[in-house]
Amino acid sequence: MREIDPTTGLALGTFGLSKLQDQDRSFHAIVRPNGEVIDISDRYPNSQAIYSDWARTFDALNDLNSRESHAGRNVGEFRPLPPTDYPQIFGAGSNYRKHAAEMYTYNKGDYQKSRLPGEDDESFYKRNLEFVEQRRAKGMPFIWLATHGSLVGANDDVPLPQIGANHDWEAELCLVLAGGAPRYMDPEEAHEHIAGYTIVNDMHTGELFSRDDIKWNADWIAKSPPGFKPVGPYVVPRQFFPDIDDLVIKLWVNGELKQDWPVNDMIFSSEHYVAYASERLKILPGDLLMTGSPPGNGAFHNQFLVPGDTMDIEISYLGRQRNRLVSEPGAEGRTPHYGLPIFDFDTNAA
């Protein structure tokens, strides 16, 4: 285990990249484990400049960090913004063994269609875990897309939408991708195209996800309301992590630990996800790839988020998030036209 500076949650001997804001401006910066800030905006005015040629950028930033004897200001003086500018956001679906088996066992709706008559939860869970292992051996990753408008900073308030009540959390390790990624990568070469790692909370509203009026049932836009992707505060370069298997994801709601799970329970590794993305999409510098959530989300605990709640997330060596849940501002007096996806027609017709 590496020693962590409690000021930032970063490991000694590393640094993070952050986008910071004060009353005057926003800028990209190196953040040291002790909280010292080195402004890099003169060389790197945006994240495109940082991540386009990542190998060269890392060497330059590492050299700058070692040469700067003291940086004047501390990270606590600033508001952390999402650390990359206008990224594409890729999400991994069902990528932790235990979480996937729990969802297939306990979630309602279509998940229950494969339950045998009279089958208890224990037996159903065991079968679902076997299915997950088959998917790992014979299947492939699954990616969905989120919107840039869902991003907020690591300490920002998160507005809860008027529609739905099952507002849920999912703490995740997030990859920040480097420029120059080729199409059709092999997993073995994909590691070089990961620039670094950050934290994301992949929130969603459960009732908005299932749709009976469309044959494919899922409405992924339920994961992209404004503010439903708190991200950051730091991107920690992958060069500091030859192996990420010892990283642990933790999430608390109102001080109560809800998620506590190692990254090494992934069904498909980070490298497999990057390779899969390169087959299906064009990867751009600074894109975000969320790698899936471990077990312990709100649906499992039968507890959902309400205004006034606070979420804290920690991932080993990557820092911390703290977000407060608030009522959606600016929506007073306005009523949703469509609301919840509830339908009274025959879904078996046609």
Automatic annotation (TrEMBL):
GO terms for molecular function: hydrolase activity; metal ion binding. PANTHER family: FUMARYLACETOACETATE HYDROLASE DOMAIN-CONTAINING PROTEIN 2A, FUMARYLACETOACETATE HYDROLASE DOMAIN-CONTAINING PROTEIN 2A-RELATED. Pfam families: FAA_hydrolase (PF01557). InterPro entries: FAH, Fumarylacetoacetase-like_C, Fumarylacetoacetase_C_sf. One of its GO terms (biological process) is small molecule metabolic process. The keyword DNA repair does not apply. This is Fumarylacetoacetate (FAA) hydrolase. Belongs to the FAH family. Signal peptide: none annotated. It comes from Rhizorhabdus wittichii (strain DSM 6014 / CCUG 31198 / JCM 15750 / NBRC 105917 / EY 4224 / RW1). Residues 89-325 form the Fumarylacetoacetase-like C-terminal domain. Keywords: Hydrolase, Metal-binding.
